[in-house]
């Protein structure tokens, strides 16, 4: 029988009596383990060997484990200091023993929490007693640590479990493959196997000479183990943002842009938010210190907005009857929502006057001094959008959301009436979390009031919304904590694997 040379080598080195590890075979026949693995699988396909797989635990010291292997376990050091202080005769103040032990920082707690557990003594109302019969040289955890530090192997036992629980060792699993000759393999070997010269690489010479016609080409081993590669990729939130933009552009929207830091005038006053609204005074906004105020605001616009606040709009209008101060409106802050962009576009300060029908959006950051938790960050991406047309109703608003969310496979959004100073009616949007089944708020929306639109010079109807990109992504990918995708606590594995593909 003729076989490729590496298969012949593996077959000849293999045994029918006991499985031989790929690593050992590779060392013996002086070929890379990947080649031997590939050859072994091919021989297995031909029925000449069996490839046996076992998982093996590999135990490695962590950095902390290595440190203790060198300096001694904290509880052993505490015991030794306790003996020195005479705590085997009578209890000694814990502070004193710790002081002489040389233990520092978190090691003190570690020492104390293991001291009694391992029978080194007891701790009672601040005093430490040492058991004279305890023997650190019989400490199984210390012994295992020492063996591992010296490169030795330890059996899986309670001591090893403890070390793993204490994060002093890391236990990883790997697959170990061995090769065992089958009966057919033995028969072939006895009948004699020969190396067939195989061509691994086709060369221009072989093509020119026609030699390729008779050559035996090596097979590609498509099952060979390959290393895992985790190259840089677009962050899943960025992917989501790109996708949202694509969907909105597909629905006929144009993108808005504008400043992250803006005057309260555009963030609040243009939205008919009264200046004494609690959110404007106590709302944890990020105010700017330098510069503190915007230089200029369009005079006529300021005048119209002020009048709406004081007197309302229309013949039966009614304003807030509360103070309105231009200086207050000029204060700069990081925008708490991107509706500031909407105010800029609707009022025409962003460029040309907008004529109906028009559709605009942005997917940009908004900043709020919230308390961090699983669903809140200090900054988040808001999907802002609005539609200007002659006659708009709640049906148009809901239909737009259904259409938008369905592009992400979300078909069960719910609406709840709410209140915003600038919209009437207003609706919060909710979606169901795919993992927890909880209803989570995903956005806020409504139809802008005349008190907002008239001063901005808009005569048509405008429906608008602010949706949270992170929440949309939660519904799409099922992650449960916003901190999984942002910041130092992020879930790297999730970020490596997550894809927003539709
Ligand atoms: N600005 C609102 C928020 O941040 C969202 C919104 C925008 C609501 C436009 C209605 C109209 O929650």
Description of the molecule:
The chain is of the alpha+beta class and 502 residues long. Among the domains are: 2-59 and 173-213, Arc Repressor Mutant, subunit A; 237-260 and 337-497, BirA Bifunctional Protein, domain 2. The chain is 37% helix and 22% strand. It has helices spanning 5-13, 22-29, 33-45, 63-71, 74-84, 94-101, 106-115, 140-149, 158-165, 183-191, 204-209, 236-250, 264-267, 278-281, 299-311, 326-329, 339-347, 394-406, 450-456, 469-477, 492-497, and strands spanning 2-3, 20-21, 49-61, 92-93, 121-124, 127-130, 169-181, 194-195, 198-199, 216-217, 254-255, 261-263, 332-334, 358-367, 379-389, 414-420, 423-432, 439-448, 461-468. It has a seven-stranded mixed sheet, sandwiched between helices. A three-stranded antiparallel sheet has the order 2-7-3. Strands 4-6-5 form a three-stranded antiparallel sheet. Strand 9 (198-199), helix 11 (204-209) and strand 10 form a beta-alpha-beta unit. Helix 1 crosses helix 3 (33-45) and helix 8 (140-149) packs across helix 9. It starts with a strand and ends in a 5-residue tail after the last helix. The mean pLDDT is 92.
Keyphrases for this structure?
aminoacyl-trna synthetase, 21 helices, 7-stranded mixed sheet, nucleotide-binding, 502 residues, 22% strand, binds phenylalanine, Arc Repressor Mutant, subunit A, 19 strands, alpha+beta, BirA Bifunctional Protein, domain 2, ligase
């Amino acid at each position: 029988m003729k076989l490729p040379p590496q298969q012949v080598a593996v077959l000849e080195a293999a045994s029918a009596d006991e499985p031989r590890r790929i690593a050992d075979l590779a060392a013996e026949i002086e070929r890379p383990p990947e080649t031997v693995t590939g050859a072994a699988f091919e021989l297995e396909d031909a029925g000449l060997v069996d490839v046996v797989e076992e998982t093996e635990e590999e135990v490695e010291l962590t950095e902390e484990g290595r440190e203790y292997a060198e300096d001694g376990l904290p509880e052993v050091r505490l015991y030794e200091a306790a003996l020195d202080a005479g705590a085997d005769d009578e209890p000694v103040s814990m502070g004193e023993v710790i002081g002489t032990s040389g233990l520092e920082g978190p090691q003190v707690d570690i020492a104390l929490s293991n001291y009694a557990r391992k029978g080194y003594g007891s701790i009672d109302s601040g005093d430490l007693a040492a058991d004279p019969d305890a023997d650190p040289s019989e400490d199984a955890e210390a012994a295992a640590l020492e063996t591992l530090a010296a490169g030795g192997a330890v059996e899986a036992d309670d001591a090893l479990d403890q070390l793993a629980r204490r994060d002093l060792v890391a236990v990883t699993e790997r697959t170990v493959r061995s090769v065992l000759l089958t009966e057919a393999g033995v028969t072939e070997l006895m009948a004699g196997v020969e190396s067939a010269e195989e061509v691994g690489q086709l060369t221009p010479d072989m093509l020119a000479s026609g030699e390729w016609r008779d050559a035996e080409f090596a097979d590609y081993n498509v099952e060979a183990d390959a290393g895992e590669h985790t190259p840089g990729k677009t962050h899943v939130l960025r992917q989501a943002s790109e996708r949202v933009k694509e969907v909105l552009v597909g629905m006929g929207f144009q993108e808005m842009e504008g400043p992250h830091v803006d005057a309260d005038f555009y963030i609040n006053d243009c939205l008919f938010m009264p200046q004494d609204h609690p959110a404007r005074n106590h709302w944890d906004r990020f105010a700017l210190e330098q510069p503190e105020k915007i230089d200029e605001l369009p005079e006529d616009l300021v005048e119209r907005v002020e009048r709406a606040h004081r007197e309302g709009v229309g013949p039966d209008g009614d304003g807030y009857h509360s103070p309105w101060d231009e200086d207050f409106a000029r204060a700069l802050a990081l925008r708490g929502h991107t509706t500031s962009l909407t105010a800029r576009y609707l009022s025409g300060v962003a460029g040309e006057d907008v004529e109906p029908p028009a559709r605009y959006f942005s997917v940009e950051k908004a900043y709020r001094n919230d308390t961090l938790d699983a669903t809140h960050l200090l900054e988040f991406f808001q999907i802002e959008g609005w539609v200007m047309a002659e006659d708009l109703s709640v049906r148009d608003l809901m239909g737009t959301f259904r259409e938008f969310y369905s592009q992400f496979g979300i078909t069960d959004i719910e609406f709840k009436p709410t209140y915003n100073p600038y919209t009437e009616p207003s609706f919060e949007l909710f979606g169901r979390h795919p993992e927890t089944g909880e209803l989570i708020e995903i956005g806020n929306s409504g139809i802008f009031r005349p008190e907002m639109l008239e001063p901005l010079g808009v005569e048509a109807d405008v429906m608008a919304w602010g949706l949270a990109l992170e929440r949309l992504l939660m519904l799409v990918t099922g992650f449960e904590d916003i901190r999984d995708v942002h910041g130092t606590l992020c879930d790297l594995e999730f970020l490596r694997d997550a894809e927003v593909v539709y």
